[in-house]
Every structure is written in structure tokens, then in C-alpha cells.
Design brief:
By secondary structure, this protein is of the alpha/beta class. Helices cover 36% and strands 14% of the residues. It has one domain: 3-Layer(aba) Sandwich (Rossmann fold), CATH 3.40.50. One of its GO terms (molecular function) is phosphatidylcholine lysophospholipase activity.
Length: 217
């Protein structure tokens, strides 16, 4: 099971005692909006800059729920591909809907989390079973996993040796990893806000620009 935190609105700055585990179904009565934070590839939900985002949203009066996907942080298991990670994210959405059925829910994806958010949109569109989020925030998004790797600082060699790009695509395909946000977000039925720094040295802003031109449903 994916380990989760629930930070309530106006949590104290020291963050002590404000991270809740399970909450009973229907327990959240204030109807305040909920942000589901999907973190990036490195580290876990407790990484300092992520905690600062939780604190900011909490101070603004929002609930924040976040998880470590299986294999991250103190979550057990090992993901066997994109589908497992996305299933963990959808389980967080189901949890939010169950404990706060009357609150609007927004997904905040950061870096890899933006790709997970896109795949959530696709899976929910295909299978149903949970009400989609009311909105999505994409913080440093990319178009697909291969493009993100190709344009990353470590991808310089792929831009010179084409065979390495083909090899990486083969590896991603064998691991069932695509995070094809450029396709997935065409299925979105909610507003999407894109945040991207012009000097992002990991995920170039050009990928965010490309994604911003996607036709939303």
C-alpha cells in the first residue's frame, strides 16, 4: 500500500502533528478544496522543496494529500511499469473522494508527476470508477518520457549518437513506460494550468510549450 500524508488547511509551520494517515469515509466536512500532490522521480514525498509546497497550499486554506508511489520512500513493493505508479495515484484520488465527497479535488503534478497525472486522465477515461479531478496543475511538464530523457542534461549523448535514443526507447517499451502526456491530456475534461520556468535545467520549457498547444477535450 502506498504511504500517504494528509495535511489539513492552516497546518502549523513546524509541520509537527499535521500529517495524518487514514481518515474515515466522509470525515472531511469543511468542503475546502483538496490538492493531490504527485511528486517527481527523485527522492520521496518528504523532500524539503515538496514540503514547502504543502505548507503553502495549507496556508492558503487547502487540504493537501500526497503519497509515495510503490518503491518510493516508505511505500512497499516495486513498480512493474507505468500502470502500477498510475494505479497508486488513482488510489489517492479515490481516497480523497471517499473522505471528502463534497470537496473539489485538484491534481498537482510535478515533473514525473505531470506524466502520471496525464496517464491518470487516460485510465479514468477508459475505465471510470472514480470522478475525475476538477482541475490539474502541471509543474514542469513534458510531452512523453522519451522526449524528457532526450532533452535532459544526461540526454546530450543521445542527441549525438542516434542509436542510443533507439536503445532507450526499447528500454522504456520493455518496462512499459511511456507517460505520453501529449496524447493523454487530449482526453482531459477539466481546466489545466501549466507552470514552467524559462531556465529549467532538467525539463526544458520547450516541452511545456508543446504541451500547452494540445487540444483539450
Amino acid at each position: 500500500m502506498a504511504a500517504k500524508w494528509h495535511i489539513r488547511p492552516n497546518a502549523t509551520d513546524d509541520f509537527v502533528g499535521q500529517r495524518y494517515g487514514a481518515v474515515n469515509a466522509g470525515d472531511i466536512k469543511d468542503r475546502a478544496p483538496i490538492f493531490l500532490y504527485l511528486h517527481g522521480m527523485a527522492f520521496n514525498r518528504a523532500y524539503p522543496h515538496r514540503v514547502e509546497v504543502y505548507k503553502l497550499l495549507s496556508r492558503l486554506g487547502y487540504h493537501v494529500m500526497t503519497i509515495d508511489y510503490r518503491g518510493f520512500g516508505n511505500s512497499g513493493g516495486s513498480p512493474q511499469g507505468e500502470a502500477d505508479i498510475v494505479a497508486d495515484a488513482i488510489s489517492l484520488l479515490r481516497y480523497a473522494r471517499s473522505v471528502a465527497p463534497h470537496s473539489p479535488v485538484f491534481v498537482w503534478g510535478s515533473s514525473l508527476g505531470t506524466g502520471i497525472a496525464g496517464s491518470m486522465v487516460r485510465v479514468i477515461n477508459e475505465t471510470g470508477g472514480v470522478r475525475p479531478p476538477e482541475g490539474i496543475v502541471l509543474d514542469a511538464p513534458f510531452t512523453n518520457m522519451l522526449a524528457a530523457a532526450y532533452h535532459s542534461p544526461q540526454g546530450k549523448v543521445m542527441r549525438v549518437v542516434v542509436a542510443l535514443r533507439h536503445l532507450l526507447k526499447h528500454i522504456f517499451d520493455s518496462l512499459n513506460i511511456a507517460y505520453d502526456s501529449e496524447t493523454n491530456f487530449q482526453l482531459a475534461k477539466c481546466p489545466i494550468l501549466i507552470l514552467h520556468s524559462a531556465d529549467d535545467g532538467v525539463v526544458p520549457i520547450q516541452l511545456g510549450h508543446t504541451l500547452s498547444n494540445v487540444d483539450i477535450w
